[in-house]
């Protein structure tokens, strides 16, 4: 097959109004161009650097929210299109959650791991993120943990969580400090 291109946000999660993030487009090629699109409109073109191109958003406003995707071009030919990455920009009204992992951040392959996102709010739900992935893990209510069974090398990475409430409007927390999971 031809090349594929993936898109992800670093750090993942809803961006704080006035905050910053980086949109990463990653391809298995090391030459050519990456074009960043937002809501179907071309925004920026970058040369591939290594196998990735990074687009920064700083001092984020509502205008930065939208559906982003990357196209990989060689000359004028589009060789690959990424999935769509939804970027949200919100004010943060909730306390920062704390992410913990049991039995610990270093585990043997095949072990079961439990992630817990703790926040000082009675009705908040939380999302668990893994850096480099477009999608978050399933939604967690306050009393739920997220379990990974029989972990393998592919589950390694930098995890974080972010919480929200669904009153009249969504209210968001900051993203937790990251936690690196290492699988031996």
UniProtKB/TrEMBL annotation:
<dbReference type="InterPro" id="IPR007110">
    <property type="entry name" value="Ig-like_dom"/>
</dbReference>
<feature type="domain" description="Ig-like">
    <location>
        <begin position="3"/>
        <end position="86"/>
    </location>
</feature>
<keyword id="KW-1015">Disulfide bond</keyword>
<dbReference type="InterPro" id="IPR013783">
    <property type="entry name" value="Ig-like_fold"/>
</dbReference>
<keyword id="KW-0325">Glycoprotein</keyword>
<protein>
    <submittedName>
        <fullName>IGSF1 protein</fullName>
    </submittedName>
</protein>
<keyword id="KW-0393">Immunoglobulin domain</keyword>
<dbReference type="InterPro" id="IPR003599">
    <property type="entry name" value="Ig_sub"/>
</dbReference>
<keyword id="KW-0677">Repeat</keyword>
<dbReference type="InterPro" id="IPR050412">
    <property type="entry name" value="Ig-like_Receptors_ImmuneReg"/>
</dbReference>
<keyword id="KW-0732">Signal</keyword>
<dbReference type="InterPro" id="IPR036179">
    <property type="entry name" value="Ig-like_dom_sf"/>
</dbReference>
<dbReference type="Pfam" id="PF13927">
    <property type="entry name" value="Ig_3"/>
</dbReference>
<dbReference type="GO" id="GO:0002764">
    <property type="term" value="P:immune response-regulating signaling pathway"/>
</dbReference>
